[in-house]
Amino acid sequence: MVLTYLLFENASGYALLERVKSEDVGISLDVVQKSITDLSRFSKLISLRAFLPFASAENALENINAISEGEVTEYMANFLEMNLRKSKKTGKVKGTLGVQDPKIGNIIQETLGIKCEGGELVAELSRGVRAHFHHYIRGLKKEDIDQAQLGLGHSYSRCKVKFNVHRVDNMIVQSIALLDQMDKDLNTFSMRVREWYSWHFPELFQVVKDNYLYCKTAKFIGDKSTLGEDSLPGLEEILSDPEVAKAVVEAGRMSMGTDISEIDMINVKHFAERVVGLHKYRSKLYKYLSNKMEACAPNLAALIGEQIGARLICHAGSLTNLAKYPASTIQILGAEKALFRALKTRGNTPKYGLIFHSTFIGRAKQLNKGRIARYLANKCALACRIDCFHDWSDEVDGKPNNRYGVVLRDQVEERMEFYATGKQPRKNLEVMRGVAEEEAKRRAEEKAAGKGDKKEKKKSKKKKKKRKAEEISADTASEEPKTKKKKKKKSKKKE
Length: 495
What we know:
Layout: E1 3-10, E2 13-19, H1 29-35, H2 39-45, E3 46-53, H3 57-68, H4 74-83, E4 96-98, H5 102-111, E5 116-117, H6 120-131, H7 133-136, H8 142-160, H9 169-198, H10 204-207, H11 211-221, H12 232-239, H13 242-253, H14 262-296, H15 298-304, H16 306-316, H17 319-324, H18 327-331, H19 336-345, H20 359-363, H21 369-389, H22 403-421, H23 428-494
Parallel strand pairs: 1-4, 4-5
Antiparallel strand pairs: 1-2, 2-3
């Protein structure tokens, strides 16, 4: 197949180039590569047939978005139909069209009936046209092309990274990374508070074992010599246990710790206060993460939990990448080092990665942990794909829900029961059909309720209009006799 035309997409518009007629034989790859650097030689191979500039920056952005998604716009289709030569007998385009993207070539061939071709020859010709494009178009400078490319690149990038309510996986990645880092730092800081304050009150470590409560208690007590019966209400409020509060007071009376100066105590209190503030921020951050997971991946969160689901998304890079992974990859996600070490040493490969922290694997017996991990990874793959690719616009409120995730979690529970008792679980096809039928019924009921509400609103509006019309007619009827009486009085006065 001999290449006749070449479609070149530029930031300034579409260009259609044609093979020079003097070239009877098809253009070879070696000839193109040798002539790219020389404009005089390259212009003998291919010449400009038509150029269609973009009307505005918005038009350019619309076309570049369509090209990136493998679509043909009306702008491009009309340009090709008007400028390609067609035979008078058949009405088809003579020759073939060279296209850089094979997806666009397939769509052009299906929709417009134009034979398209790609490959190394088209790539080399496009490279030469890109190098000498400002010579083909009169009045177009190389600096103008660079500015157009820069502006279109910025607008295209902004369009790609624009905020989407249902795809906030980037916020999930950042928040779970911060949450994991805060857990490590809080453990370190809490141990530092324990070591620092234990010089003064070492017995408190045995009474209050929770890090957060320990920091709050140390901040409240300060100097242990001030502990007494007056401190019990405050300690009970912090510890939520009167017996533990009494034990703290008794331990303060019998403490063997050393006395410290006021300046040291002030520093200990300040540090404990900062650690308490970090604990409070950590709880707020967890609520924020839960809300984001409900908005982005509710089915995955319902199946395996917010934190583990967020870690899977973070490790994959995005929800879309995680949805593209097979179940076998999701199963060992997070255990890559152990996997490659096992492959290198020809040992046993790991059974689970990040999903090991799930409660299902913790509750399973040692013999069934690998089976549950494989089954759970399969359900995670389904939940991810539902969250990523399901069209939530069909919902009445337009928001994602976790109905599939709840059913998938029940399936994992049934599988665990099957390993324990032998009871046969439901099949996946049966479960999914049940959820789909329930959603269809719910949508039909909500639509019917919406129509009923609309009818009632219309009836109420009609009744209000009738009442207003009756009131207006009554007012006009009451005003008419008054005007007649006034006219009679005036006529009597004149007589």
